[in-house]
Records
---
Amino acid sequence: MTIFYRLDGASPSFSDCSLDVLRKTQGVGRAVLYVNITNSCPCDCIFCIRKLADGMNPNESLWLEREPTVAEIKAAFEARGDLRQIGEIVFCGYGEPMMRANDVIELARYFKSVTSIPMGTNANGVERLSSPIPIRINTNGLVRLVAPDFCMESLRAVDCVSVSLNADNADEYMRVTRPRVGGAARQQCPYEEMLAFARDAKEYTRVVFSVVGEVLSREQVERCREVAEGVGVGLRVR
Ligand code: SF4
């Protein structure tokens, strides 16, 4: 069961190599650790990579036989080795990580707690700790249509939330993401809710919208940029 993985397709995969091996194969000091905790997703995007492949690496399926428990994820994390080799932790499963929103928040707090590494004592004998590893959630921003009681303030546990914008208007958004949640009323419209989620989330953490540049025209990207400006967040074109 692959809980942790890398995006670059290099082998060996993160799931079966220690961080020491990873450091040598990457040739750099710090790796991005992706966290895969669910297959579940409320959307059926026409461009979803899950329709094309079982994972990011040819020999590594990211489909989970079952959802790992929080305890199993913590144990797998602790088995990674030297935490100083991790530059960022990203919840970006083969499904939508916020389908397990409360577990994501619990794990984020846990990752923060165990990644403050003792750095010895200073001249005054005071124990120094490194900064906790930055944590990001990649999400479709529809968590409140799935879990209306989700506590937005709990997003303080992470450093960044990257929300898939996908389109500059509701009709196009519905066409490409095909959500199975929400409804026709404006307050239930998935596109409006995704924008509202980003607007509310930025009260508690850094938020960026992301779009895939390859599937949008230059004009569409510019309109997405205007949408992002209207919400008050940045736009990342992948
Ligand atoms: S939200 Fe992500 S995981 Fe879900 S269908 Fe769309 S691309 Fe796939």
Note: The two ends are 28 Å apart (CA to CA).
---
Amino acid sequence: MSARAAVTRPSAAELRGAALAYASRGVPVLPLRGKLPRIPAAHQPGDSLYQQCRGQCGQQGHGVHDATCDPDQLRAWWQRWPEANIGLRCGVGFDVIDVDGQTGRHSLERLLAEHGGVPIGGPRVRTGSGGWHLYVAPSGLPDQIGVLPSVDYRAADRYVVAPPSRHPTTGRRYQWIPGRGLDTPLGELPAALRERLTPQPADRQPEPAPTRPAEPGHPYGRAVLEAETARIAGARGPGQGRGGERNQVLWEAARNLYNLVAGDVLDEAEVAGELERAARACGLLRDEPRQTQRTLASARQVGMAHPRGVPERSARGASGHDHPHQDASHHPPFRPRRQPDHPPER
Ligand SMILES: [Zn+2]
């Protein structure tokens, strides 16, 4: 699109058509005024449901939770607010790396250069303020403002402004980079960024339990292996209770086990085999083979970077404390705000 077109106000038909087109691809959409939700908030400060309700009250006005793929609802919204910008919900079909201007670009490039320089790829938007939105496969990781200087990560419960919306300050349009529209296969979240986004136990546990190396086959390692693989095998998929959680459980359990592989407590080949068996048992390997392999590769990479041995208490086998606590991993339970199962590869 030309520089002139970039400042031309999109027509109502153009905005409505784009909103419907995103929704028809399974991307939930919400109307925006500038960058903020257009629908007035259902709950104000002082209301007991303020910042608690996510739409269970039946009204609209819950920010990203209003986003929908229902074409009738979208037509009604854009009939009422023909000039509304378009917000796309993240964490469902994609996550977005939000790069703010040249500062953000440089911090992302620096990170990539330090870690092998693998390009991220995927659909890409030039924002109305001169930044970029990089669309990557949903990671299940929590969103994070400032994951790098001038770089945010937008995931579950966040949204991004999408083309052809106009930036409220500059008046410039958000535009898909030519050849990098939403048809482009999603980008890969770089491992170095994934690691930064992963809640680290050290953040909440300043003094980790002292550990010492042990030979593979130590009873502590065996107990953790059994507990973690049982957790994966029992994880629920979509339609099996409240939300799918299999991918998240798999990632977390695999990361915990590879921590112990790196600490020489468990044997790598055995862990890989047991993880695959558990992923098959919960149906994940059958339903989402490619995403599952990516999850395992990522968990291995992060896990191997943080070796962990046997906690002192368990290392003293003679004292009869070979059995780990319920949370054998010593990682606090990882609880992102939502635990969406990744949609199948499209
Ligand atoms: Zn409500």
Note: The pocket of zinc ion is lined by residues 42-43, 49, 53, 55, 57, 59, 62 (CB under 6 Å).
